[in-house]
Amino acid sequence: MKKFQAALVLVAALALVLQAAAYAAPPLVKNVVASSPVNGGGYPVPPGSSLPTPGTCGPISLNANHSESWLAVKPGSETLVGSSKFFVDRYSTYYDFYLGAYSMPNGSPAGNVQMPGFDCVSNGGTQAMPPDWTNNTDPNNDWDTQGRVYELNLPFNAYWSGGLHPNGAIALTYSDDNGKTWSQGNGGQYLDQLSNSLSTTWGHVEDKQWIAVNHYAASKYADHVYAMWTDFNGAGGNGKIMVAVSRDRGQSFSKPIQVSTPSAATPANTYVYPSVGPDGTVYVAFVSGYDTTNKNRVGHVYVAKSVDDGKTWGPFTLAATPIENPTGTFANTNFRDGIIENFTSSQTYPGHVYLTYENYDSPAGTMDVYFTQSTDGGNTWAQPALVNDDAGTAATDQFQPSVAAGPGNAVAVAFYDRRAACPTGDPSISTPGATNTCIAVTLQAYSDSGTAAGAVSVGGNVNLSQYAWDPEQPLQTLGGLSQYPCAGHADPCPAGRGFIGDYFGLAISGKNIYALSVSTHYPAGGVRDDVGGPIYYQQQVLATVARSALGL
Question: In terms of Cα–Cα distance, which of 93, 240, 87 is closest to 160?
């Protein structure tokens, strides 16, 4: 009996070794740090305060954490433009950041720039608020057919101040040189700006904006730009989905209209993801049931579409009902959870749309990732399938998934993954060998041949991260301040308020799959902590894997 039990233990151990080996990053995956410090404009935070002081904006370095990202590939090329939060100087603990862009011609990082138009330096020195803002947030971008890439911005003033009005706006910027320089769209006017808004009490504020562009040359709506966001009004959420459309490549936008949601949905709707199919149909996925007083509950993900260029929307179909993280936090670490779902449409097959989401396993207290799809324009949805294939899925967390579709058959889901124990012998890891702690990026490839079967998984999970990273970093201090990014805008950071971003970027070209995501493995160049050592800031790392290596 003892020999039999020993044999079982040996088999189990061997299975874990084989599973770990299968999950190791394949040799054709390449990782390169895309982020780097840039000089720009913004606010310091004075001693004894947790927020900027009006009138103190000036030249400053954005050389700290780079949390949260998005990524888009120029149609018919390998050229990418990414975007992320760029935290300001030493003030990460006070949630002090702006949006920045990454130019990546032919898939290679070639420089970063602060998104202009929202700080006193790029606005010609004005301290007026607006057009000067203390922050700019929520990276997203998309391309048109003529090589223009668009970004929808959410500039805001430090909402925890209780007095900097107005609180925020929705604004468009665009670039015609692959993200090197940017211009203001919509004639320099905001798409939306709510008067006297204040999000400390969840008064009337905008949030969670996203952009989608029709980049199909044969479509009668080619190069039309669809901007969507949520207007919140009230402590319980009351999130109304808004849409504005540009039919002249971002030079002007229609007056925003509310996307009327079905009676089955709650008044609280957010996490808006629009996407355009090859026939010109515009889709949108969103979560209904969001409550700003208790956001962690059973989510209801609806999908709707517009076949008339964004003028009318429907039907609204319930695509999934994920169970949200009840605490919004993760064991063993201090960072908060992010956005529950992500959505896209096929670039090749009209009516094929894809949804991924994280789901809470209540007995185990961990998260898993699921994938569902529709091949009839979102009218009916397949049974959700588990994406992460780790042994003992209940033991570790998989979360914050992104989904992308590329030319031809390629579809992919990527997500943050804590299945592997923290590495040893790595100075950036604060808890070597710890389980369900350190993070890597996992990819699952799918192939869609255009049939009713939709996207079918190809192979197993692939590790896109050359190095797992420690979400508790940076643990270092600079000028006596913690360098840990904190959504609680305080030092020390309150429990569960650490910030690694709410999502990350994934894009597919004709040749490759790309992911742009956080890592703290790589020490920041040129910045030293209070004792002269390296600071392990959150960097944005571009992962590249050839479609051919994945059978796509």
Answer: 93
